[in-house]
Amino acid sequence: MLQICREKQVQLSRQYQDNTLAHAVIIQGIEGSGQNALAKWLIELLICQSPLSLTHPHESEAVSEACGQCKACLLNKADNYPDHLLLLADNKMLGVDDIRRGNAFLEKTAQLGTVKTILIPQAQIMTVAAANALLKTLEEPTENSYIVLITDDLDSLLPTIVSRCALYVIRPVIGDALLSQLDVSNSDDALDSTGSMVSNTITNYVNLSQLPELTDKAVYEEFQAFNKSYLDYLFNGQSEDNLLSQIVASKHSLRWLEKITCNILREYYLDNAIEQSSLIVQQQMSVHVFNQIYQAIITSNKLIKSYQQANRQFVGEQLLMTINNIVRPSI
Ligand SMILES: [Zn+2]
User: Which residues contact 309 (CB under 8 A, 6 or more apart)?
Assistant: First the structure.
């Protein structure tokens, strides 16, 4: 069981308490990053009639929680709460009729509570028509309603939708945070002598079945070529032109850079617990260097996502220069 991203919980709790929570929220996180758990927690909190505010030891900020006891909480637990709607896709696609069902739901007066909530898991599988119908709702929000969208791929949502929602991006944990999560899971599940618990944990993080490189053969091949260029650039200082043109050409490239780097770091932290065989150790690189690279990639990724007009060529060139200075400071 993965923990809910504490940082986002604290942030959302504060907004909930100050009444500044946005009426439309996107939670973005790769499969296994706790994105569903965060959305579930938020919906339960919005539904609850007498929420609690809890401050854990060693923490200064309180987190709000549903009480779990009130009428609304009990009905919700029984999947019988009338003022919440879950918009799940059939046929692997969320169509315009689904969104219209959501709009009709929002137009009715709340039956029991004071707010109405809609949860849309897998928002990335909305059709263009559905996305446009949703856009209308987001432009003219109804009173006391909250829409929570979950996605693993922000790039496949219309930018106009993203710009009308408050965005919460859950980044996979790395480093010490990952190790402490492992400690938590190890205390629940026995670790066998082959370290298979650790493998299970890796599986949790890399179960990215929604991602296009795992479902589309052409994208997969593109990803493999990209991976090769990136590693060649990192470890050998070669393939720079190749890598830059791949960064410019693929809309997935910044996410891929983040993913590959993150996986290398995970491998390092996880393997270190067993034996020194990770790529970082093999290449005799410092994990500190890798953490710096990861930060540089996240910064570029944010830049690309926050400005639709951001020039990929420019961002890519700057990023490669930064990585080069981190890896080979003397050159
Ligand atoms: Zn309650």
Answer: none
Tokens (6 digits) for 123: 């928002």
Strand pairing category for 84-86 and 63-65: unpaired
Instruction: Give the number of C-alpha atoms closer than 13 A to the C-alpha of residue 260, restricted to the C-beta side.
Output: 21
Expressed in angstroms and rounded, the spacing between residue 82 Cα and the centre of ligand 1 is 15
Place of tokens 């896709």: 89
* Cα–Cα nearest to 222, from 186, 250, 194, 201: 250
Report yes or no: 87 and 99 within 8 Å, Cβ to Cβ. yes
What's the CA-to-centroid distance between 222 and ligand 1, angstroms? 48
- What does the pLDDT look like over 261-284, one tens digit per residue? 888 887 777 655 555 567 777 777
- State both tokens at 242: 């190749």
Tell me the per-residue pLDDT of 2-48, one tens digit each, with 9 for 90 and over.
567 888 999 999 999 999 999 999 999 877 778 899 999 999 999 99
Specify the 3-state DSSP secondary structure of 161. Answer: helix
Contact 4, 33 (CB under 8 A): no
Tell me how far the alpha carbon of residue 70 lies from the centroid of ligand 1, in angstroms: 4
Q: Look at residue 56 and tell me whether its pLDDT is greater than 90.
A: no
Distance (angstroms) between ligand 1 centre and the Cα of 44 equals 8
* CA distance linking residue 274 with residue 233, whole number of Å: 28
Is residue 314 exposed (0-12), middle (13-18) or buried (19+ Cβ within 10 Å)?
A: exposed
- The closest alpha carbon to 47, from 101, 119, 104, belongs to 119
| Span from the CA of 53 to the centroid of ligand 1 (angstroms) | 12
DSSP 8-state secondary structure symbol assigned to residue 93? B
**Domains, the chain, ranges and CATH?**
6-169 (3.40.50.300), 189-327 (1.20.272)
| Side-chain half-sphere CA neighbours of 66 within 13 A | 21
